[in-house]
């Protein structure tokens, strides 16, 4: 999943060098770096010259800019990008932006599936740009902003609504009772940690919400990510019974868990492999068990 | 904030672009559920308007009920509709069982396989039923 172009390791050579010249280590490193860069440059030139159809991929990228006249009508731009092994969608977009059109706009930060800023609609499916290998996709690669969110510019969508839904479930640890000694740890059993493990992995990318048919038709629906967040805390035994009841009240409301129609599309697209539908279903059962009392 | 663009049809088509098993199952289940309700009402309407109380003609096999039903059965299109009804009902029942399992949290990892299994089984049962439905003489 590396986003770097592979670089030749030259350290071992450096260690063996025993030249008597009075040369600071810094000078040597700089000289080596220059040499390496020259090599890479030459290699790149050769590569770019021998570029043919097989070594390039075509990106079809959604473009739209409400602030520039002439770009207000959405359109698709084609970019031909040289392919290298291990290249991700994000790498290709960065290449296109740096080499062809600096106005091409998309969010990214960590490049390693941690920050959740580059969920995109690629070849008809929600995917994380930095976690999706180009080699897995059919050429041309069609890249659009996430569906069901307002487009701000090019591939950037407005995430505000998604964040609002996340906030609505009070996504923070909040125990009924905290230890008297403030420095005391609040330990969790191994079993309980296992139970919530997958649910803690969410990176707030919004892919799941974008893939959900129900969320598309019902703006008030909490959506898979928020419900998963609620699951993460409702199932945490350290919070205590009162807090759990409050959490269940939030997810039981009209636009909560009961809107889920088990289409599994969120589970299919989640880049962190969180079993979202499973968690939603478990909260449904939890809510029923909580309300049905026959004695 | 900058003004943002409502993608209209892109938005609507995006929603349906890539179907996964669970989404097909959902669409089919809705569709078959409502077809069954439609059939239920037609069924009640047809039967309730064809019950005549005339023992003599019933004896002779020419009462309203018999003639209505054999009239319907003599139409080829009705025979095909019956096969369709069976397909719809069988799929709804099988997928209904699948959904009950999903609700109980059983076998969620194989929800797609159980959907394909429902489809295959429905197909097999429908094919097996064809001789029964289409075989009888069109009176
Ligand atoms: C053994 C027979 C049946 C089984 C196991 C079954 C099962 C189910 C289940 C589990 C659902 C809920 C789907 C969900 O979770 O969203 C459902 C929905 C439905 N069923 Fe059935 N069903 C059966 C027979 C029927 C019949 C005979 C009719 C019509 C007369 C019918 C009409 C419907 C309708 C209209 C829906 C709602 C569809 C929607 O979501 O809009 N079902 N069925
Ligand atoms: S649950 Fe998965 S798809 Fe949804 S926001 Fe979190 S990481 Fe993204
Ligand atoms: S850039 Fe951070 S998740 Fe892709």
From TrEMBL, chain A:
Residues 8-24 have a biased composition (Acidic residues). One of its GO terms (molecular function) is 4 iron, 4 sulfur cluster binding. InterPro entries: 2Fe-2S_ferredoxin-like_sf (IPR036010), 4Fe4S_Fe-S-bd (IPR017896), Beta-grasp_dom_sf (IPR012675), Helical_ferredxn (IPR009051), SDH/FRD_Iron-Sulfur (IPR050573), Succ_DH/fum_Rdtase_Fe-S (IPR004489), Succ_DH/fum_Rdtase_N (IPR025192). Residues 200-274 form the 4Fe-4S ferredoxin-type domain. Residues 25-45 have a biased composition (Basic and acidic residues). The keyword rRNA-binding does not apply. Pfam families: Fer2_3 (PF13085), Fer4_8 (PF13183). Residues 1-52 are annotated as: Disordered. Keywords: 2Fe-2S, 4Fe-4S, Iron, Iron-sulfur, Metal-binding, Oxidoreductase. GO terms for biological process: respiratory electron transport chain; tricarboxylic acid cycle. This is Succinate dehydrogenase and fumarate reductase iron-sulfur protein. It comes from Haloarcula vallismortis ATCC 29715.
TrEMBL record, chain B:
SUPFAM superfamilies: Fumarate reductase respiratory complex transmembrane subunits. GO terms for biological process: tricarboxylic acid cycle. The keyword GTP-binding does not apply. The chain crosses the membrane at residues 21-41, 76-94, 115-134. PANTHER family: SUCCINATE DEHYDROGENASE 2 MEMBRANE SUBUNIT SDHC, SUCCINATE DEHYDROGENASE HYDROPHOBIC MEMBRANE ANCHOR SUBUNIT. Keywords: Heme, Iron, Membrane, Metal-binding, Transmembrane, Transmembrane helix. GO terms for molecular function: electron transfer activity; metal ion binding. Its main location: membrane. This is Succinate dehydrogenase, cytochrome b556 subunit. InterPro entries: SdhC_prok (IPR039023), SQR/QFR_C/D (IPR034804), Succ_DH_cytb556 (IPR014314), SuccDH_FuR_B_TM-su (IPR000701). It is found in: Membrane. It comes from the Archaea. GO terms for cellular component: membrane.
């Amino acid at each position: 999943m590396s986003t770097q172009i592979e670089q030749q390791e030259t350290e071992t050579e450096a260690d063996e060098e025993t030249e008597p010249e009075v040369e600071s280590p810094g000078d040597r490193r700089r000289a080596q770096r220059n040499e390496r860069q020259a090599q890479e440059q030459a290699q790149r030139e050769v590569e770019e010259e021998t570029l043919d159809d097989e070594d390039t991929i075509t990106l079809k990228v959604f473009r739209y800019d409400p602030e520039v006249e002439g770009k207000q009508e959405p359109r698709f731009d084609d970019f031909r990008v040289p392919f290298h092994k291990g290249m991700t969608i994000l790498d290709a977009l960065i290449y296109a932006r740096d080499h062809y059109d600096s106005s091409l706009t998309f969010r990214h930060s960590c490049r390693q599936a941690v920050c959740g800023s580059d969920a995109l609609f690629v070849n008809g499916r929600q995917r994380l740009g930095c976690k999706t290998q180009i080699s897995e996709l059919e050429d041309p690669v069609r890249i659009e902003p996430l569906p069901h969110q307002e487009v701000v510019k090019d591939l950037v969508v407005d995430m505000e609504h998604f964040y609002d839904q996340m906030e609505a479930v009070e996504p923070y640890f909040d125990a009924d009772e905290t230890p008297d000694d403030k420095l005391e740890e609040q330990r969790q059993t191994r079993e309980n940690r296992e139970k919530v493990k997958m649910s803690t992995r969410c990176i707030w990318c919004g892919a799941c919400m974008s893939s959900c048919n129900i969320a598309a038709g019902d703006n008030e629906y909490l959506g898979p990510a928020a419900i998963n967040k609620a699951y993460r805390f409702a199932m945490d035994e350290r919070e205590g019974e009162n807090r759990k009841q409050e959490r269940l009240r939030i997810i039981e409301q009209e636009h909560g868990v009961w809107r889920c129609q088990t289409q599994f599309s969120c589970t299919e697209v989640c880049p962190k492999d969180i079993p979202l539908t499973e968690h939603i279903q478990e909260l449904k059962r939890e809510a029923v068990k909580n309300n049905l009392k026959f004695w | 904030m900058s003004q943002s663009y409502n993608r209209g049809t892109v938005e609507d088509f995006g929603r349906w672009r890539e179907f996964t098993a669970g989404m097909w199952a959902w669409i089919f289940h809705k569709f078959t559920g409502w077809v069954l309700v439609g059939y239920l009402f037609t069924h009640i309407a047809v039967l309730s308007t064809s019950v005549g109380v005339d023992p003599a003609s019933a004896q002779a096999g020419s009462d309203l009920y018999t003639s209505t039903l054999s009239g319907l059965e003599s139409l080829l299109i009705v025979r095909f509709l019956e096969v369709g009804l069976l397909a719809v009902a069988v799929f709804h029942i099988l997928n209904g069982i699948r959904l009950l399992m999903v609700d109980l949290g059983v076998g969620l990892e194989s929800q797609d396989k159980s959907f394909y299994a429902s489809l295959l089984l429905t197909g097999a049962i429908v094919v097996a039923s064809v001789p029964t439905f289409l075989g009888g003489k069109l009176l």
